[in-house]
Amino acid sequence: MLKVKNALISVYDKEGIVGFAKELCNFGVKIIATSGTASTLSKNDIKVVTIEDVFKVSELLDGRVKTLQQNIFASILADRSKEKHISQLEELNLVPIELVVVNLYPFERGLAEGREEEDMIELIDIGGVSLLRAAAKNYKYCIPLYSPSQYDEFLQELSSNDGEVSLQYRRRQSMKIFENIFRYDEIISKYFSLEFREVKEEMFPEILTLELKKVMDLRYGENPHQKSALYRDTTDVKNLIGSDILSGKPMSYNNWMDADTAVSVLCEFDMAACTILKHAAPCGVGTGENMYDAFNRAYITDPISSFGGIVAANREIDLNTARDIITSFFEVIIAPSYEEEALKILKTKKNIRIIRVDPNIFSISSSLRCYPLKGGLLLQESDSALVSVDDWEIVSDVKPTEKEIKALDFAWKVVKWVKSNGIVIAIENRTIGIGTGQPSRVDSVELAIKKAGSQGHHTGGTALASDGFFPFRDSVDTAAEAGVTAIVEPGGSIRDQEVIDAANEHGIALLFTKMRHFRH
Question: How many angstroms separate the CA atoms of 284 and 455, rounded?
Fold first, then answer.
C-alpha cells in the first residue's frame, strides 16, 4: 500500500477540482499546484503552495514552459527502494510526490470547434503529458489522474484503505494514462497528417494506427448471433455518430450502416434532397424545391422496398412531409432539423429512431475508408470525386437535350452509391428504377427496368447511368427496348465502339465520364 502525503495538481479543466482538493486535505494531503490551479484553490479557502515556492521555478515563454523542471520530475520519479534516490531528494530539499493530478489542453475540443492552426498549436500539451508519463512510469510510488471523472473513484480508494492506495489500483491507473496519452498524441498526429500533407501518397503512412473511442455496446451485429459495438473517430468534426437521437429505440448495427450510406448519398446534392435506403442500397432518391416534394419523389420509386428502411433528408422536415412519412413504416428518420409539429407527429411512432444531424455533415469529406481483411485491412480514399457534366464526352451522333442532361446528372450522382454492378434509371428529379448488386451488368439493367415497371413507372424518355463501362452492347439494346433515350457511363471498354454503334442504331445519346464508381 502507498500512503499519499503530497499531491501535485495542474489542471486545465477546473471541474470538480475544488471539492476533490478539499477531500484530499481531509486525508492530510499537502497540495502543490501551478499558479492558475493554486489561484482557484486559494479562492475557495484551500491550503495550497505553488510550484514556484516549492521548486523555485517560474513560468517562461507566455506559459509554454511551466513544469518542465528537473526537481519536479525528481520528486515524481524517485524510486524509494533506492537509498541513493532518497538521499538525493534530501540533498535538494525535495519531498516525494505520491499523486499527480493533470488534465491536458483540450486539443480535441479545439479540433471540433474548427480553430485556426495557430490556436491548435498552442493546444498541444507538453508539460502535462510529461508529468503524467513520469507518474505512470513510477506507479509503484506515484498515482496519476488525468480526468475529473476519476476523482470520486480515487477518493473511494483512499477511504477504503485509510488514506492509502493499493498496487493494483496504481497499475490500473498507469495503464489508463498511457492509453490516454497514446490517444491524445494520435489525435494530434492525425491533425498534422491531414493539415500538412504535401503529396497524396503521404495519406498512407508506413505504420497505421487507429484510435477510436467506444461509444456503446450494440444489441447485436448484422445478425442476432453476432456481438457488436459502436466506436467514434474523435477527430472527425462532421461526425454522424455524434448526432442527436431525439426519439425511438437505440440505433442498431444495421441502422448505423444504412445511415452512413444515406448521408453519403445526400452529399451529392445542393438542393433539397431525400433518399430512402435499406440494406445499404438506395430504394429511391428525389429532389425538389421543398422536402415534401423530395420525399414523395423518392418514395414513389419503390414503396415496397422502402418498407422498413431509412429516410434521410438534407433539409428540415416540415409538418406535411412528416404526415406522409408516418403513413408507411420506417426504422430511422435523419434530418438536420424538424419543425416542432412535425417532430410531434413523428414521435407518435414510438419505435422510429429520429436523428438530428449537423447540417455540415452533408458536405463531402476527404476521409479514408477501410475494410478489414484476414491479417490486415484495405485503406482507400472515400469516393468523393464526381466528374462535372461539362467534362463529359458525348460519343454518340445524337446529342442529349437539356432535360436529358439534367436527368443524366441526377442518375450519375445516385449510381455512385448503388452496389455494383449498379444501374439507375431516372428523370431530372427522381429515380425511376434501380438495379443493384448483379454480377452481370445487363442483369442490373434488366432489374432496373423490371423494378420501374413493377411500380407502374414508364421508362420511355428516361436517362440511365451505369457505375462501370458496358462490356458488351447488350445493355444498350436492352435499355433501348425500354425506351431509354440517354445513357451515361464511364467508358473504357475494349468494345466501346460496339456500344457506341448500338447507341447510334437506337438513336440514344451516349456520354462517357471517364471515371468509374464501383461500390462493393
Answer: 12
pLDDT in tens, 160-191: 888 888 888 889 888 999 888 888 887 787 77
pLDDT at site 448: 97
**Tens of pLDDT along 31-81?**
888 888 888 998 898 888 888 877 777 666 666 676 677 888 888 888 887
Cell representation of residue 504: 447510334
Q: How many CB atoms lie within 10 A of CB 315?
A: 20
Closest CA to 406 of 385, 392, 417: 392
Residues assigned a catalytic role: 137, 279
The whole-angstrom separation of Cα 210 and Cα 377 is 12
Say whether 390-512 and 246-358 share the same fold. yes
Q: How far apart are CA 337 and CA 316, in angstroms?
A: 5
Identify the residue whose cell numbers are 499527480.
Answer: 100
DSSP-assigned letters across all residues of 22-38: HHHHHTT-EEEE-HHHH
Q: For cell 446534392, what's the residue?
A: 269
> Domain coordinates of the chain in residue numbers?
2-194, 246-358, 390-512
What is the spatial distance between Cα 428 and Cα 436, in angstroms, rounded to a whole number?
Answer: 20
Q: What is the DSSP string of 80-144?
A: TT-HHHHHHHHHTT-----EEEEE---HHHHHHTT--HHHHHHT--SHHHHHHHHHHHTTTT-EE
Q: Using one digit for the tens of pLDDT, what is the confidence trace for 79-94?
A: 887 788 887 777 787 8
246-358: what fold?
Answer: Cytidine Deaminase; domain 2 (3.40.140)
Q: Strand (E) positions, 134-178?
A: 143-145, 164-165
Percent pLDDT > 70 in the chain is 94
Contact in structure between 352 and 331 (CB atoms under 8 Å) = yes
Total-model pTM: 0.73
